[in-house]
Design brief:
Largest sheet: 7 strands, antiparallel
Radius of gyration: 19 Å
Order of helices and strands: EEEEHEEE
Number of strands: 7
Strand content: over 45%
Strand order of the largest sheet: 2-1-5-6-7-4-3
Amino acid sequence: MAEATLQLINLEGGGSFDFQFFPATVVTDDRANWERQDLTHGEKPLFYANREPRTVTFPELYLDQTHTNQSIRPQMEAIAKLMEEVSGLGRPPKLLAVWGGWQELCVLEEYSAKEIFHHREGHPLRAEIRITIVRIQNG
């Protein structure tokens, strides 16, 4: 049986990415927007406006090549590439995020990398990665 990881599958070109470790923490945010209606007197009633798309944040993903002493910079660049515009579309690609039994059709909204261990030659060997994906409704 294959070990479960987090995968970001690029649905509109190459550059998909599989994290080597399963996420330790997953944070899901949903939001309903309520607008206050103006009145000349009394308490302002609330009017339901719409919903924000679900966001899922993976605050603690790790890349680690300390056992090989190989740079993780290519892996870091492969993740960042999933935020680049697709030629002819004028926007980053749609992705399918898969982890455990979950799947989300999404885009990669945020990516940050904290390099936490380096080879004596200066290249990163370990990094803590934080990503946020935003669910999209239509294919």
